[in-house]
């Protein structure tokens, strides 16, 4: 964003951080991997796990929330890994990503990989399977994010880094603990009707219609459903960050 260069100070409101109050290069300059997920407690637990795996701490250590000045998001860091919560749905993760990408820019980070981890609804897979997203698709199975900017509809690509998908699949094969597939992830605007559930407050379709829709999704290459991947893919692509 060229407008950032004209600002005396860039305040990341929802992180409670700012370039006038924090030394971004000192705090985050060594970051190489960013893992994001919906729940603050889950991302804290992930930080403890990564610390132990990297030999940088134990699961019993307490990792401070860098964004403790706000209750919007939580952020934890161990070594070169930043762990950030993003809440639920496209609007919430979009706000987080705007400020995260600016944080990485101000910290002068390079060769960053951002990975979104989390639970999702599977289609045609055993529970507990891992889906590595090839591309995010909307509820009509198109690989795009439709967004309104200044009153105009903007269509953005949701393709993700193919090489990274292959590398993650290879890692899964070496670990050998999970059934792992590469497939499309469908990003919806709603948890209930948007995902064809029958147990929401409103439901104007029957089970047969639901199953027909899910079969169409599967036949198009969709293997799981969630509510954040489209804007994640679009923003990673637009900012030149390798994401998955």
Q: Using the coordinates above, name the CATH class of the largest domain.
A: Alpha Beta
> Taking Cα atoms only, what radius of gyration do you get, to the nearest Å?
19 Å
CATH superfamily of the largest domain: Nucleoside phosphorylase domain
Shape label = globular
Task: Give a quick rundown of the structure.
InterPro entries: Nucleoside_phosphorylase_CS (IPR018016), Nucleoside_phosphorylase_d (IPR000845), Nucleoside_phosphorylase_sf (IPR035994), Uridine_phosphorylase_euk (IPR010059). GO terms for molecular function: uridine phosphorylase activity. This protein is α/β, with parallel strands linked by helices and 244 residues long.
Characterise this structure:
Its EC number is 2.4.2.3. It comes from Acanthisitta chloris (rifleman). One of its GO terms (cellular component) is cytosol. One of its GO terms (molecular function) is uridine phosphorylase activity. Keywords: Glycosyltransferase, Transferase. The chain is an alpha/beta fold and 244 residues long. It folds into 2 domains: 118 residues, Nucleoside phosphorylase domain (Rossmann fold), CATH 3.40.50.1580; 125 residues, Nucleoside phosphorylase domain (Rossmann fold, 3-Layer(aba) Sandwich). Helix content is 30%, strand content 24%. The chain contains 6 helices and 13 strands. The strands form 4 sheets. It has a 5-stranded mixed sheet. A 4-stranded mixed sheet has the order 7-12-11-8. The longest helix is centred in the middle third of the chain and has 17 residues. The protein is globular and about 55 Å long.
């Amino acid at each position: 964003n060229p407008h950032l260069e004209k600002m005396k100070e860039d305040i990341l409101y929802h992180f409670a951080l700012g370039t006038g109050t924090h030394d971004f290069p000192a705090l985050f300059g060594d970051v190489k991997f960013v893992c994001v997920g919906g729940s603050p407690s889950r991302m804290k637990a992930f930080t403890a796990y990564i610390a132990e795996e990297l030999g940088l701490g134990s699961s019993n250590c307490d990792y401070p929330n860098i964004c403790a000045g706000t209750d919007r998001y939580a952020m934890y860091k161990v070594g070169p890994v930043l762990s950030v919560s993003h809440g639920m749905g496209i609007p919430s993760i979009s706000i987080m990503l705007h400020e995260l990408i600016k944080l990485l820019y101000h910290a002068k980070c390079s060769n960053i990989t951002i990975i979104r981890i989390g639970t999702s609804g599977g289609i045609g897979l055993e529970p507990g399977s891992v889906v590595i997203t090839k591309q995010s698709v909307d509820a009509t199975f198109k690989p795009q994010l439709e967004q309104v900017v200044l009153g105009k509809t903007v269509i953005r690509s949701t393709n993700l880094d193919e090489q990274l998908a292959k590398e993650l699949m290879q890692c899964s094969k070496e670990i050998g603990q999970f059934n792992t597939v590469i497939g499309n992830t469908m990003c919806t605007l709603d948890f209930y009707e948007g995902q064809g559930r029958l147990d929401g407050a409103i439901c104007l379709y029957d089970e047969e219609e639901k199953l027909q829709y899910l079969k169409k999704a599967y036949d198009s290459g969709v293997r799981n459903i969630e509510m954040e991947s489209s804007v994640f893919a679009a923003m990673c692509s637009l900012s030149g960050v390798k994401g998955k």
